[in-house]
């Protein structure tokens, strides 16, 4: 109703004009208010937090990218993300005009240096005057093939609450302390659509991963959709927008979808082309159809809009059927609403076709490696630089070197320098889709080894080498025989002879070096040839000077073969405690003598590379299984260190705790393998115990090990060899073994004397008296291992 007021004829005096203007303004306001009330309210995004947290929405729609991850501060606590959850709701402009929307709930935690409560409280009180609360910014991104959107939220946590929390240690691997939750409302999603969600803080931290989640939108069978979403009103239960169905008998994929007020559309994907079937036209209505590729930067129109006047089949070449291929249809009217549908967004064949049409190119500009990725669609994935050795696989360089896939844009990895062995891979869902290398752009065919140098907190350097996709310490990468090569690599890295491939800018000082192997191989083989020629010359000199001695050696060699028939192929495993270098040399002499008698000897001293790769426990169990399966024996070679190790093992065993296997000494680990057999009384047939009488009397060996034969070397060497040979030893073979005992015994006597002279003074007294050892052995009989 409009109110009209009349003042009569004639001109009003000036005193009456002001009230007249006020009345007209009032009339206009009253006339405008109903229309204002009837306007639909545009929904806006909102955020809320649980009690104890504060939050506000800074930006609703922006472009977000994750920067380089930073180390977690060791002193000050920080707010981090713990978990992401989502649920489907409705966003409505009117009661019956709603769209599906995704609500996001983020759990937040507090991560900081490990402190006790008193130190935390003191730190809080000292920092309140300059910092009253912890603040952080959180990026929320929602991505689907038609769109990409980000929201920026600020969250703060009062410092005063920190005093009641026990903050976890950053380096201890503990989970952050839970503080509360953040609710974001909300991201729209298409019916039967797929929304890729991600959340990360600004700045992001190395030990805190990016939270990612994929949410699948509902279809018209959802109970809230039937009456409140216009696209689902009037549909039968079996009709849904963009709802895939199984392939037909003819092998054609069908994707029907129905939208009110437009024709029914069906997509058939065959072997040659895709066909869009347009039918069930509304009465006396014409439409326009447009095909386009929906990319982030722009919409690439494939053809001019096609006018549809009735049912028709529209052919679509398979060469343009990608996940981002969308259809836009609208009625032939003035300023009509347009409806967009992307029927191939979840089609695996369309995705594979998009990757097949993608290209990854590497370029070098002014000693800088640049790369460009071109694709018909925005594809999910990342760019990863890797290191290739010849025709072998390509292995990633460093966990920090990652870039998001950005089509048709020049990108660079910070501080990464070009190198012939450098490649870049485009990866998606854990698989490599594309790979491009620089090998063809560089002359020469040198082979390079990639090494990783790190500087520890104390300033000490450590080096690791890339082997078959894993970074292992350089001491394990090269065996003892290749010590010259290892030292040469370390010297070249320190002197700058190697090429730096990448270096970090933070306090950890990570540097990747590339060192050419051709140089070291030439040096190594040159030295090997010199050693070989020197060895041949020495042998010839010995043959000329000592002919009689040579005859004796030949006779002994002949006897080796006669006695080797008894011991040939008999496998044994020697377990010992490496007390010092001279004792290890003594053990090596004994093992070499047995090997000369054609015994198959397994010794930790000779297989440290294999042991380092497998680990002590796994290697020992494998060797024990192999020796016992071949009918061999396990020899426990006791020393002062072995006796002390047994005492330590039994003391811990009595408390129900096994000692850890130290990587530098495998004796405690070997006790974990053999002690159960001794405690169970199953050791007599498979074990032998020996000691060097000048270094350790047999009486000091713990009583538990006297359940098997104990041999004192070298005085009982002959009986020791007979026990290794077994009962089937003839008279001739026994004579041959006696002759072998002579030269083996002399070698052992010299080595024992050298070991005794070089032995430290603290090792001269027994570490474990025999009475105490026997008492501990008797006490060990009641441990859990005995009962089992």
UniProtKB/TrEMBL annotation:
Residues 569-722 form the SEFIR domain. Residues 766-788 are annotated as: Disordered. Keywords: Cell membrane, Glycoprotein, Inflammatory response, Membrane, Receptor, Signal, Transmembrane, Transmembrane helix. Its main location: membrane. It comes from the Eukaryota. It is found in: Cell membrane; Membrane. The keyword Transmembrane helix applies. It holds the Pfam family SEFIR. The keyword Ribonucleoprotein does not apply. The chain crosses the membrane at residues 524-545. PANTHER family: INTERLEUKIN-17 RECEPTOR (PTHR15583), INTERLEUKIN-17 RECEPTOR C (PTHR15583:SF12). This is Interleukin-17 receptor C. It comes from Gekko japonicus. The gene is IL17RC.
């Amino acid at each position: 109703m409009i109110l009209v007021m009349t003042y009569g004829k004639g001109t009003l005096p000036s005193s009456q004009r002001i009230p007249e203007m006020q009345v007209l303004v009032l009339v206009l306001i009253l006339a405008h208010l109903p229309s204002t009330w009837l306007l639909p309210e545009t929904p806006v995004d909102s955020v809320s937090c649980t009690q104890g947290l504060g939050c506000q929405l800074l930006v609703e729609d922006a472009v977000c990218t994750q920067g380089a991850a930073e180390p977690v501060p060791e002193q000050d606590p920080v707010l981090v993300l713990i978990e992401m959850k989502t649920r489907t709701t409705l966003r409505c402009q009117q009661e019956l005009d709603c769209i599906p929307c995704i609500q996001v709930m983020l759990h937040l935690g507090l991560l900081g240096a490990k402190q006790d409560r008193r130190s935390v409280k003191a730190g809080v009180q000292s920092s309140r005057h300059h910092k009253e609360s912890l603040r952080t910014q959180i990026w929320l991104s929602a991505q689907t093939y038609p769109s990409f959107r980000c929201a920026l939220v600020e969250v703060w946590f009062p410092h005063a609450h920190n005093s009641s929390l026990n903050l976890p240690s950053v380096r201890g691997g503990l989970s952050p302390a839970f503080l509360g939750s953040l609710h974001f409302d909300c991201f729209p999603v298409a019916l039967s659509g797929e929304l890729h969600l991600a959340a990360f803080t600004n700045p992001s931290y190395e030990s805190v991963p990016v939270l990612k989640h994929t949410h699948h939108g509902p279809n018209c069978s959802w109970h809230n959709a039937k009456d409140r979403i216009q696209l689902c009103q009037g549909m039968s239960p079996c009709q849904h927008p963009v709802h895939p169905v199984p392939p037909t008998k003819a092998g054609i994929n069908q994707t029907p979808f129905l939208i009110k007020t437009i024709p029914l559309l069906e997509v058939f994907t065959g072997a040659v082309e895709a066909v869009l079937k347009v039918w069930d036209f509304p009465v006396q209505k014409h439409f326009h159809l447009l095909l386009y590729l929906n990319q982030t930067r722009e919409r690439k129109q494939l053809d001019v809009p096609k006018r549809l006047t009735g049912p028709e089949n529209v052919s679509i070449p398979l060469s343009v059927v990608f996940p981002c291929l969308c259809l836009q249809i609208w009625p032939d009217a003035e300023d009509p609403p347009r409806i967009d549908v992307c029927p191939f967004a979840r089609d695996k064949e369309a995705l594979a076709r998009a990757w097949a049409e993608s290209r990854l190119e590497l370029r070098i500009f002014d000693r800088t490696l640049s790369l460009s990725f071109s694709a018909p669609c925005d594809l999910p994935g990342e760019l990863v630089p890797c290191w290739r050795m010849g025709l072998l696989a390509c292995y990633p360089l460093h966990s920090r070197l990652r870039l998001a896939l950005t089509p048709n844009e020049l990108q660079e990895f910070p501080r990464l320098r070009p190198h012939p062995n450098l490649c870049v891979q485009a990866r998606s869902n854990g698989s490599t889709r594309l790979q491009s290398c620089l090998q063809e752009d560089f002359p020469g065919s040198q082979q390079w080894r990639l090494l990783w140098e790190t500087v520890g907190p104390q300033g000490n350097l450590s080096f690791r080498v890339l082997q078959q996709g894993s970074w292992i310490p350089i001491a394990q990468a090269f065996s003892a025989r290749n010590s010259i090569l290892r030292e040469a690599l370390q010297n070249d890295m320190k002197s700058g002879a190697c090429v730096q491939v990448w270096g970090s800018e933070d306090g950890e000082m990570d540097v990747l070096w590339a060192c050419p192997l051709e140089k070291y191989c030439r040096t190594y083989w040159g030295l090997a040839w010199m050693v070989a020629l020197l060895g041949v010359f020495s042998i010839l000199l010995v043959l000329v000077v000592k002919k009689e001695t040579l005859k004796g050696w030949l006779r002994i060699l002949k006897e080796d073969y006669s006695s080797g028939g008894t011991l040939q192929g008999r496998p044994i495993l020697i377990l010992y405690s490496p007390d010092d270098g001279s004792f290890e040399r003594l053990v090596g002499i004994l093992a070499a003598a047995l090997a000369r008698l054609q015994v198959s000897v397994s010794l930790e001293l000779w297989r440290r590379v294999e042991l380092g790769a497998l680990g002590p426990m796994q290697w020992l169990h494998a060797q024990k299984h192999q020796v016992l399966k071949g009918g061999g024996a396990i020899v426990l070679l006791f020393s002062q260190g072995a006796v002390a190790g047994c005492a330590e093992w039994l003391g811990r065993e009595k408390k129900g705790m096994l000692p850890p296997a130290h990587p530098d000494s495998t004796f405690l680990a070997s006790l974990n393998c053999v002690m159960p057999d001794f405690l169970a009384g199953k050791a007599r047939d498979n074990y032998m115990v020996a000691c060097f009488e000048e270094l350790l009397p047999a009486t000091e060996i713990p009583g538990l090990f006297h359940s098997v034969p104990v041999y004192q070397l070298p005085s009982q060497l002959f009986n020791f060899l007979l026990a290794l040979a077994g009962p089937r030893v003839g008279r001739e073979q026994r004579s041959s073994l006696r002759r072998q005992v002579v030269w083996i015994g002399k070698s052992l006597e010299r080595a024992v004397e050298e070991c005794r002279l070089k032995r430290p003074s603290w090792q001269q007294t027994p570490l474990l008296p025999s009475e105490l050892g026997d008492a501990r052995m008797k006490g060990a009989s009641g441990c859990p291992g005995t009962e089992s």
